[in-house]
Amino acid sequence: MAVSYDAIVIGTGQAGPTLAARLARSGMKVAVIERKLFGGTCVNTGCIPTKTLVASAYAAHMARRAADYGVTIAGAVSVDMKRVKARKDAVSGKSRTSVEKGLRNLEGCTVYQGQARFISAREVTVGAETLAADKIFINVGGRARIPAIPGLDQVNFLTNSSMMDVDFLPRHLVIVGGSYIGLEFGQMYRRFGSEVTILENGPRLIAHEDEDTSAAVKEILEKEGIQIRLDTTCTGVSKRGEDVAVSLASPAGPSEVTGSHLLLAIGRVPNTGDLGLDKAGVMVDDQGFIGVDDQLRTTVHGIWALGDCNGKGAFTHTSYNDYEIVAANLLDHDPRKVSDRITAYNLYIDPPLGRCGMTKAAVRRAGKRALVGRRPMTRVARAIEKGETEGFMEVLVDAETRQFLGATILGVGGDEVIHTVLDLMYAKAPCTVMQRAVHIHPTVSELLPTILGELKPLT
Ligand SMILES: Cc1cc2nc3c(=O)[nH]c(=O)nc-3n(C[C@H](O)[C@H](O)[C@H](O)COP(=O)(O)OP(=O)(O)OC[C@H]3O[C@@H](n4cnc5c(N)ncnc54)[C@H](O)[C@@H]3O)c2cc1C
């Protein structure tokens, strides 16, 4: 006999728990199923722990630079990796406990722990139990993609998840993948004291960004002593004593790099293969992402998919926004939709890269007439005062409407400053609103109105 609920939420990522709370508070009887760690990727193996580690790495970096600021540190700066990990575990653990407690204490909500599997469009099993509901919400997230590199089954390798257990300093960390996750781990471990090599099979890092952004990020990382090999494909891996040897192919010919540890950071796959979606009739694409419409309804009436598993976003804020969209449509008669969302994200290297809207390449591809404004961080007073002048700020404006098309802020504070542009994009306001605003001195943001006064046609 199935236990009946009004709603079942599968997965406690960035959308599920808040949605469960809204549904329960609206009077529904709700079941939540989690197979592993409450809070999912962001809380346990993604944003929160990595940004906590980035903070430790920044502290080490600034300690080494102390003399630049007239500060003397007696002796060499050293990093205690056990304490770095303990700090990370404490921050992440607090968040996980809070998600779990919140759900267990939620009136009208029953928590199940185990693997959820559909057996029909209305029924899901977890352990020995069968649950049934007219409304089912899938928030199962994703995991690291493991590529088919010959020899991988013979060596130990790390992913973003197993990196969370590292409480020692890898002598030489070889990272496969020159995108967001690989770069964040790369810079942080270099700052902890590891030798770091990043292998990227494309011609540049972070290929979704403009070429000059990729080049600036590469320069920043190389200045810190990170080895970056572009146009380089891993053709095999093997054990070399305690080390891992990685065979490489590049236009220059075959070569090899040997490291003490190997981290795979070449993208994510959705956790949809073991969910029994075929039993429910829910369609997935050829990469396993669940097909959804603009309001996150799957191909089966009464089943929604939220977060990374629907392929519409790959971030905590996009998953949370999925919750907002579903809740607004179901409970508030507010027809919010995914296509209203503006692309925005940060890359948390130091200095951070804040991004919103279109890149220059995307504007050119779209054939839009646009204006561009740019300023190096060496000409930003706040950056000079802080002694952190790497990077640049760039804004793109529609030549006809004068609305912002996008922005790239690679520089100190860029992860926060980007929101000044993002909010005006949501407001569909002309850039003159910002140009005439009096920003506070001295800040990084104060230069944005100045940049807007110096716009030039994008060629
Ligand atoms: C290293 C790293 C750093 C990141 N940094 C950032 C960042 O700085 N900013 C940002 O916005 N994003 C970042 N992300 C991405 C972000 O973590 C994800 O986009 C976010 O967690 C969205 O998750 P979600 O809601 O889709 O599900 P997830 O958080 O992935 O959670 C899914 C949950 O479902 C559970 N589950 C899966 N299958 C089942 C099943 N069959 N039955 C029961 N439970 C199941 C899982 O155990 C998991 O708890 C990062 C990711 C990584 C890997």
Indicate the percent of residues in helices: 25-40%
Strand order of the largest sheet: 19-20-23-22-21-24
Small-molecule binders here are:
flavin-adenine dinucleotide
- Please give the largest β-sheet: 6 strands, antiparallel
Any idea what the shape is?
globular
How much of the sequence lies in strands comes to 15-25%
**Low-confidence parts:** none
Mean pLDDT reading? 98
- CA-CA gap between termini: 67 Å
Helix/strand/pairing category: alpha/beta
Number of strands: 24
- Radius of gyration in whole Å, from Cα? 24 Å
* Total number of helices: 13
Could you list some keywords that capture this structure?
459 residues, alpha/beta, 6-stranded antiparallel sheet, 5-stranded parallel sheet, 24 strands, 31% helix, binds flavin-adenine dinucleotide
Walk me through this protein's architecture.
By secondary structure, the protein is α/β, with parallel strands linked by helices. It contains 13 helices and 24 strands. It has helices at 16-25, 40-44, 47-64, 81-104, 180-192, 211-223, 277-280, 316-331, 360-366, 381-386, 414-427, 432-435, 447-452; strands spanning 3-4, 7-10, 30-34, 109-113, 116-118, 123-126, 129-132, 135-138, 142-144, 172-176, 195-199, 227-229, 233-240, 243-250, 253-259, 261-264, 268-270, 303-305, 344-347, 353-357, 370-376, 392-398, 404-410, 456-457. The strands form six sheets. A six-stranded antiparallel beta sheet has the order 19-20-23-22-21-24. Strands 4-3-2-8-18 form a five-stranded parallel beta sheet, covered by helices on one side. Strands 1-7-6-5 form a four-stranded mixed beta sheet. The protein is globular. The relative contact order is 0.11. The model has no long low-confidence stretch (mean pLDDT 98). The chain binds flavin-adenine dinucleotide (FAD). Flavin-adenine dinucleotide binds at residues 10-15, 33-37, 40-42, 45-47, 50-51, 115-116, 139-142, 160, 181, 271, 275, 307-309, 314-317, 319, 348.
